[in-house]
Write a structure and sequence with these properties.
Rossmann fold, 34% helix, 13 helices, seven-stranded mixed beta sheet, six-stranded parallel beta sheet, homodimer, Dihydrodipicolinate Reductase, domain 2, 17 strands, Alpha-Beta Plaits
Chain lengths: 443, 443
Amino acid sequence: MKEEATGAPRRDRVSPFKVAIVGFGTVGRSVARILCEHTPVELRLTHVYNRDVERKRVSWVPPHVEWTGSIEDVLSSNVDVMVELIGGLKPAENWIRRALLSGKSVVTANKQLISQRGPELLELARRQGERIGFEASVAGGIPVVSGLQAGLAGDQLFRVAGILNGTCNYILTRMEASRWPFVAAVKEAQDLGFAEANPAEDVDGYDARAKLAILARVGLQCQIHPSDIVCRSISVIEAIDFTYALRLGCTIRQVSRAEKDVHGEAQLFACVQPALVPLSSPLARVQGSQNLVMTTGKFGGETVFSGHGAGGDPTAVAVVSDLIGIARSRRELDRLGRSKSKNAIYRIPRGKSHRVIGEFASSHYVRFTVRDRPGIIASLATIFSNYGINIDAVFQEPGSDKSRLPFVITLEECSNSVLESALGEIKNFDFHVQPPVSLPILV
Amino acid sequence: MKEEATGAPRRDRVSPFKVAIVGFGTVGRSVARILCEHTPVELRLTHVYNRDVERKRVSWVPPHVEWTGSIEDVLSSNVDVMVELIGGLKPAENWIRRALLSGKSVVTANKQLISQRGPELLELARRQGERIGFEASVAGGIPVVSGLQAGLAGDQLFRVAGILNGTCNYILTRMEASRWPFVAAVKEAQDLGFAEANPAEDVDGYDARAKLAILARVGLQCQIHPSDIVCRSISVIEAIDFTYALRLGCTIRQVSRAEKDVHGEAQLFACVQPALVPLSSPLARVQGSQNLVMTTGKFGGETVFSGHGAGGDPTAVAVVSDLIGIARSRRELDRLGRSKSKNAIYRIPRGKSHRVIGEFASSHYVRFTVRDRPGIIASLATIFSNYGINIDAVFQEPGSDKSRLPFVITLEECSNSVLESALGEIKNFDFHVQPPVSLPILV
């Protein structure tokens, strides 16, 4: 007999919060496993959607769960929340809108969608009295979205920096540990399932900038579009760069940084790029596919969050944590006789739009690869001097082939655009075997 | 004209959330400064209580704020939330109870009170429809209470470990960096205001165990009393221990650890003690007065939170973040026409009580200080062997006085109680200049 038919008073009963998983890949399976094994009392898995669902069916999910290959079965059902795990903009955005419009909250791991359409979707959710949880869209299992929006709400954060792409970090730490060439490290990451067949989304920084855009919104209250963030690829890094970096007490990481302009708050510096970071920095200590987010606030100073930034189980923890948050809040509203909230679980504040700049001042590391001949340093020094850039030091590891000689010049603090102009002129010299590689040295 | 007198519809107005600060020391001043400078729209400082309040008055607080030396002025006022920053059990507990009973929520940084009376106070708050925020009671500005309860709610955490006392960490990292004696490092910490005149609360572990008890409740759902947690003092550590630790690839930290028994959930290992930690561990990298909390979950693996664990401004960030959380939730309820919640801001789940054990197995480091003579190692080896403890290695730094010779024996994994029995017997030998110092080696 169904509970609804007993006629007994319902006061002490908690109706389960019904969950549909849309997209049964690695993360979807992990979410299902936590919901089935761990069974947080509030949550009950009722639907699993996937294209061609039969090949996805697993035996450890309870028989009451409906498996479907039609999204309409989910959208027309009475589930309380849809977990969107298909990724990409289409059809995810449309399905999320329809879910919200049909009285469902949404939990998503979709960084591209949230970074590009987050404000509109959160506004729709607010109007509908529904919630959108997107903790899983940034840094997997590390609770950084809730950390920025709840735990650090009392601070005035002005900087967010981090290692937001585990694939790049795996590749770079592999090159660091074994002095492997870039392509060999990519190959291993692909073999281990950390990198896609086409690794451009990761290595060129597009994945990280979507996450940085989300962090800039939730932590710095800056409305920016990910496409405004300058990205530089890690594919220019060679094993020898780690050797030179070590001589400077540094290593190399793909660093995502966003910082409010302290002189006028309408512009934001934001960039995703490989950089030299001191070995003593928390950024340098991030190994393998781990992620790290470091915030700086006016009152609280630096706070660091780190852990597993990807993978089915850690990402599923973020999804289930959002589900529990939504279910608890719904249960409280139920007790008050209201079924709908007017607060989104996370806010993307309607702060002013920010102009994004990729311009910054720092010391720089520049590696040249040349056919050696007398006068090269003099030629370079003349150009740098013409641009007002001071040379700090020149390094050369012994034992290289004179026809393909790498050496490094470190430069005192200058703006990256001035350096780029100088390098534009320097590139015209005929002694280069390959273009110079310049990296900022972060302090 | 007061807004209340206009008769205009109040729909779009948000009544400010009125805050009283009780205790205007370092943290209280920082909270006031954030509320006055930063002015989060929801919050309005209306009262400051302190004994002998006139000597505390500052000019930068707006004139509408009422300064009082009588707690009755706060308790009988219409403030929405009382921020308790006086510390200790009495009269803080009584004042918090009266605040809750008179319709005020509470935010507190009081680790002793929350660790000892948290469950009762949260139950009272729940009955009253009020909330208690205590993020500031653990690890200052690091948002770990909200991190464990919201961001990691979807995981099943089974271990919490961390550096929870900044004073001890300052002392130990000073000894590590300068090879200073313990007393000199304590003196410097006192001169800098990091340590009390009587540093026992910090160095003997009582401060950290209160925080560990809170983390065990909120993260591991284990009801334990801080007095059940075994504490060992860091005062036995000497500069030479850092030299020996380094030979083992380790350093020394005051480590607070709690771990659920995986075989039966009714007991919890919990301990606060100095320990050798590998240089590669996040625990080893915590410098100065910083704090760090590391959780381990079944699904999300290790997640690390670190930052400023003490100090006025970081602790005030935690207080203000709790205030914002309570104000936002109150505002949502206001919109629904209800003034009271039935959910505490943080839950201390009514999980079963756990028996706390201080028993654990690990490798150990034991430093002996002896008047040298032949046969000492043989005597020690015989006793260890009688207790079934295997010696791993013996180290001796050169150049010590034979009448006061330190040397170190490392032992393979054994239980700490068996080791203590062996050391109890070993202490009877007449070659000791001072009692042996044993430290677990954490991996």
